[in-house]
Amino acid sequence: MARRTRDIRLKGEIKHLFRARIWSQTAKIIRAWMIWVAFLDVLTLALNILILPRGIAVPMLLPGAIIPPVAIGIVLVWRQPRAPWLQGASLIAGMFLILLSVALVGVLAGGEFYERHLNVMLFVAITAIIIFGIPLAWTLTIAALALGLYLIFQLLNPAIELGSAVAATLFFASGIFATVAARRIMTILAQKTFLFELRDRHRVAELANANDRLELLASTDPLTGIANRRWMTERLDHLWGGGGRCPDGAAMLMCDIDHFKKLNDHHGHAEGDRCLVEVARIIHDNVRRDRDHVARYGGEEFLVLLPGVYEEEAVSVAERIRKSVEAAAFPNPGFRVSRCVTLSIGVAVQSADGAISPEQLQRQADAALYLAKQTGRNRVLLHKPESAERKRIQSTR
């Protein structure tokens, strides 16, 4: 992209992408041009029969009749993508026959029509060169064929001398090749625009990927790799939908590592971090990955959301998590009751017909967790709303 416009060259995959990009438009233009050439040819022949003397009009019919079937053949070839060599060969051969037909119409009619139809032939070639967005090699071939036919028939023209034929050919050659140069610039500009589009598309894709990565970083706890508090808050708002309840009901588990500060004090923060990572993994492994959500909610606190789950199942999941952490037997010498890392879990449940906000549900889970801590730790407690005495569901030392 830093090069000058005229130095742009597409190669390899980008070249194929560009051709695929412009093929539909190019094919439509070529088909439309061929249809109009065939229509104008038939119309011109009909007018010649009506207007011109029979001796002049009749010789025009046979060469003029070549154009419609040739044009239709090219239209059929260019209706759908085919091998480039086939489409190029069909277009070049078809243009040669069309140009030859136009020239022969004038040659066979003779007189003033001789020179006139040779000029018409060049006009036809120039219009094709201008509007056909085809490879430069194809364009140069069509230009060379048109000039070659013009020179040959001018040399055979008894009405002009050799020098005049060559001079006229050189004159038209300068115009045709100027047109080819202009067509080349148009193609290069189209290629440059395509490159800009590719660059912009690439930048947009990179920006989208960067935004995705930033969003992932913003919603992920960097230590444990699970979701963080921000993500869980957004998820709760989404599930509750701004209403007073979760439509399918939900359970919330507030998990806290027992005596985590003492673990840090005895083994250091590195060991504490390893403990957090392992506990997060255990919790994540004991929930439904396609429905449940786990987040690190504080230093050593984890919040688990179980959509569509009620009391019995919620307590069962919580107990499974607690037992799995205890069975992992991570050492915690600061905990006098148990020398291994354990979890206390508070459970709160919203029924499908209950109306409670996620904040209220979280406070209930927090209250249950606090009671579990107060009554010995390493246990699961279910919150009982408006109950004077909260029932302890399970307790294990």
Main β sheet profile = 6 strands, mixed
Structural class based on helices, strands and sheet pairing? alpha+beta
**Radius of gyration over alpha carbons?**
42 Å
- Indicate the low-confidence ranges by residue numbers: 387-397
Portion in helices:
55-70%
Mean pLDDT: 87
Query: How many strands in all?
Result: 6
**Cα separation of the termini:** 70 Å
Account of the protein in words:
- This protein has helices spanning 12-51, 54-64, 67-77, 84-109, 112-131, 136-155, 162-219, 229-240, 260-267, 269-285, 311-328, 358-374, and strands spanning 250-257, 293-296, 301-307, 343-350, 379-382, 394-395.
- It is α+β, with helices and mostly antiparallel strands and 397 residues long.
- The protein has two domains: 5-202, no CATH class; 229-395, Alpha-Beta Plaits, CATH 3.30.70.270.
- Strands 2-3-1-4-5-6 form a six-stranded mixed sheet, with helices on both faces.
- Helix 12 links the parallel strand 4 (343-350) and strand 5.
- Helix 4 (84-109) packs parallel to helix 6.
- The longest helix has 58 residues, at 162-219.
Give a brief description:
Helix content is 65%, strand content 8%. With 397 residues, the chain is of the alpha+beta class. The chain has a 6-stranded mixed β-sheet with strand order 2-3-1-4-5-6, with helices on both faces.
